Amino acid sequence: MTENPFLTPSELPYQLPPFEAIEAEHYLPAFEAGMAEQLEAVAAIATDPEAPTFANTVVALERTGLGTLQRVTIAFYNKNSSDTDDELQAIETEISPKLAAHSDKIHLNAALFARLDDLWNRRAELGLDEQDERLLERYHTEFVRGGAALDDAGKERLSRINTELAELSAKFNQGILGDINAAAVHVTDREELEGLSEDQIAAAAAAADRDLEGWLITQSNFSVHPYLADLKHRPLRERLYKATIARGGGNAETLLAMVRLRAEKARMLGHEHHAAYIAADQTAGNAQIIAERLAGLAAASVRNARREAAELQEVIDAEGGDFTLAAWDWSYYAGKVRQAKYGFDAEALRPYLELDRVLVDGVFYAAEKEFGLTFAERPDLVGYHPEARVWEVFDNGEPLGLFVGDFFTRDSKKGGAWMNPLVVQSDLTGDRPVVVNNLNIVAPAEGQPALITVDNATTLFHEFGHALHGLLSACRYPKTSMTSTPRDFVEYPSQVNEMWRQWPEVVANYARHHRTGEAAPAELLDQWEASGQFGEGFASTEYLAAAILDQAWHRLTPEEVPGGGEDPAKAVEDFERAALEAAGIGLEEIAPRYRSGYFAHIFAGGYSAGYYSYIWSEILDADTVEWFKEHGGLTRENGDHFREFLLSKGGSIDPMESYRRFRGRDAEIEPLLERRGLK
After folding, report:
1. Of 133, 308, 463, 491, which residue is the catalytic one?
2. Model confidence, pTM
3. Which residue of 454, 465, 530, 572 has the fewest CB atoms within a 10 Å radius of its CB?
4. C-alpha separations of 434 from 53, 221, 261, 485, 568 in Å
5. Does residue 110 share a domain with residue 16?
């Protein structure tokens, strides 16, 4: 134990976890030691003979768990998401329910809650500033929502539910990863790959190292595989699409159990269903408001999608196709219509989108112009995987923190893209931020440039928006710093940062040919921008279908959850179909962005009944983009204003109050409707 690297703070710059020294055998002992340390500290607070004060109760509680437990938890879950193996998954299976039980021991501690409740009731007389009062409010709310006010029998049942949900979530997560790898499509005839670029074909050949000859198309996390836009061979498109959406059948029993337990928990805590329980602690505040907003947007979105489908069918008919548009045809023919309408061929832009150039001369460049940040790569600092690269970040020349970028897909990484902290910024502890961005870009063949798609570029800017929210945090307390905001607010800063990917000054700086360095032709960039709203019916519909599906699952009472019977996969499929049809968004040609069995956001992440957050945050995002345009765009003055009143605040004050201080008013929805063609 004395050699366990988690037991003492890291001596690396900014306390970057010492990944070179961390072995799998260190995790479980560190978790056990950290939980014991925290429970001992919590017991001392709960039994303190002194009357409760903000310092001896709230701040003291905030300090518990910031040592060993925080270090091992952050490092383990980052590693397990980004570079897992059987040993790490076994640790996850063992530790997840233990962590849930540990959390319950704190939240269900009656003596501790009595002290918090006393302070909450006397908060007006405590002389607290904004950040102090916000911390007290978060703890009090967290304890109430965690069951602190239940009787002993209720607490015992709730603790069992939380433990079981943690076990099921880990099981679901591992099932997704297995499905992604197993659903790769094996191709033996090169002619079937017609339409893919040479780089894509080389990547497929490199992926076929599992004792296979030929090519292997590895899966993405979404229902629509990106290669469907390029493949000319219709039977292969169909095979790839069906392999993609068939994933997750093995997770059906797990997700049904999770939905049932979440519904029971919500009822115990005084809510009609899980969606109501979640909404009560979000900026939306009410599940019915969310449902009505989604329904209104869905109706307009489906109208747009049907118009787009008719356009695609016209192209099929004009080419002499004797078939009706199917889900596996949409991306391919959408590309043809986009090119015919706007002259834009996304593949023509790929040679001008080399990953490092987009990152350094695009993402980092915009951050320097907006906030005065600069980045120096630190090859001397080791990440958790050889592909995880580390940059030191400077704020107007002064050290600020570290940024870790891990961009390529691999079998050991879960799908999707995300940001998470490795070290949490806090004035209380003096810790400065260390954040990581994960993407799943298909790695190039050895010796080839990493040319990325337009969508990859958007994701790069998006995830770095989360990173900026973490790096620019200037908060007193860890609990409310960085991206610790409601789910329906946290996507907002990242969506705003997408604006710069096509900002003329920025795109001119990064969109350069990977061999010659020549700037992308102005005509091509103009076509890209002009085609921006094209396909919005499809994009909005597939997203809204997923958000509505999430709400449908989580608006069920325990009695309404399908039993599954002998075929839980069929029960899930039937529910999914009925829910989408009832919402008027059950289009055969457009699957939800995630189907239930591989919907990691809501069954293995923190977005249960919260996937609506992206569109909710986009209301703020679209309104903010209008503000930037009205005030001169990419300037330090605008960036400093956005940073001072919003990004630096994290969750240390009410996030909607942060927005009002930044914008001068509440957000308006008109810019969003205009952007998505939904007016």
Report:
1. 463
2. 0.90
3. 530
4. 32, 26, 35, 18, 42
5. yes
